[in-house]
Design brief:
With 330 residues, the protein is of the alpha/beta class. The protein is built from ten helices and 14 strands. The protein has a seven-stranded parallel sheet with strand order 3-2-1-4-5-6-11, with helices on both faces. A three-stranded mixed sheet has the order 12-9-14. A two-stranded parallel sheet has the order 7-10. The structure holds uridine-5'-diphosphate.
């Protein structure tokens, strides 16, 4: 079935806004729903915007009763591992309760296709690398647990009510579209690439690398960076795939890992700034290495990352922060 009208929940956030831009460019009519708690009004790329929260169930049920969407893309979530340990209640509410509200409203209004942002945090500490989808799931943070619990909900809702779902386990989302006014803007920023770039551009005065005694090639953690526009492409392909199969779960990554120091080195080479980070203790809950085996998505979706080369990502992020040093205007 050719889809034409989609609802993007969390479309003002980092991954959701890039997806909405991509979907619009591919001819879809995009409605975004976002509570703007973390998202940005200037990141909206849609034909219709609804400022609303999934936690307001009655409101959402009415909206789905009055509107028919071909598919729902669910990006909205609390998504920081460390924060989830400090404040798990926020994660159980914003992730699990919100997803439950969404699924209930979908079930009652006959919406039967959802594309869900999951995470490699469902695996916990790797027992083997690269991580394939069948690797045991032992999440070590409330964040990872909430995402895994939602995957189970989706499975049960498929069996019992026929709701079809794509569950996409992102590795490290990175990169942006600075030429189109889209970038990464979290406050506070906790992610490595924007933190290194902001330090190089003197937008922040401290850069700490968390841990230098990991069993990796240079002692720092290894991560698999996947461009947000490659993620967007996989989302549309996954949505089409749901016409053939009722439920899919795929890793989205490149299969190639970079150490934290290799990221610093890339920013150093591209910016020309001699960055000297400090070293701090390990960040709790950080596995030494997270690299995807994304063969399933590559084969079954006919998907291949085309923008996830680290140096290209770093160039874009430098451009974004040069154009918008304080992030989005609002
Ligand atoms: N990291 C770091 N300094 C920072 C931010 C992150 O050393 O200012 C490290 C972090 O400990 C991890 C890697 O960079 O080893 C990637 O972290 P990020 O928060 O970007 O993504 P995550 O892997 O947690 O999703």
């Amino acid at each position: 079935m050719k889809i034409s009208r989609v609802l993007v929940i969390g479309g003002a956030g980092y991954v959701g806004s890039h997806f909405s831009f991509f979907a619009g460019n591919n001819g879809l009519k995009v409605t975004i729903m976002d509570n703007l708690s973390k998202g940005h009004r200037s990141a909206l790329r849609c034909s219709e915007f609804i400022e609303a929260d999934l936690l307001n169930y009655d409101n959402f049920l009415k909206h789905l009763s009055d509107n028919k969407y071909d598919a729902i893309f669910h990006f909205a979530a609390s998504c920081l591992v460390g924060e989830s340990v400090q404040d798990p209640a926020q994660y159980y509410k914003n992730n699990i309760l919100a997803a439950f509200n969404m699924l209930e409203a979908m079930r009652l209004t006959g919406h039967d296709k959802v594309i869900f942002s999951s995470t490699c945090a469902v695996y916990g500490y790797p027992q083997r690398l690269p991580l394939d989808e069948n690797h045991p799931k032992n999440p070590i943070s409330p964040y990872g647990r909430t995402k895994l619990a939602i995957e189970w909900m989706l499975e049960d809702y498929n069996v019992a009510y026929g709701i079809r779902s794509a569950q996409l386990r992102y590795f490290n989302a990175a990169g942006c579209e600075p030429d189109f006014g889209l970038g990464e803007d979290h406050k506070p920023e906790t992610h490595l690439i924007p933190n290194v770039v902001r330090f190089a551009l003197k937008l922040s005065d401290e850069l700490t690398i968390f841990g230098d005694d990991y069993p990796t090639r240079d002692g720092t953690c290894v991560r698999d960076y996947i461009h947000v526009m490659d993620l967007a492409d996989a989302h549309l392909k996954a949505c089409s795939k749901l016409d053939e199969v009722p439920m899919i779960r795929y890793n989205l990554g490149t299969g190639r890992g970079y150490t934290n120091l290799e990221v610093v080195d890339s920013v150093r080479r591209i910016s020309g700034v001699d960055i000297k980070p400090k070293y701090g203790p390990r960040r709790p809950g950080d596995p030494a290495e997270l690299v995807a085996d994304a063969a399933l998505a590559h084969e079954n979706l006919d998907w291949k990352p085309t923008r996830s080369d680290l140096d290209s990502i770093v160039k874009e992020v430098i451009k974004w922060f040069s154009l918008c040093p304080q992030g989005y205007p609002n």
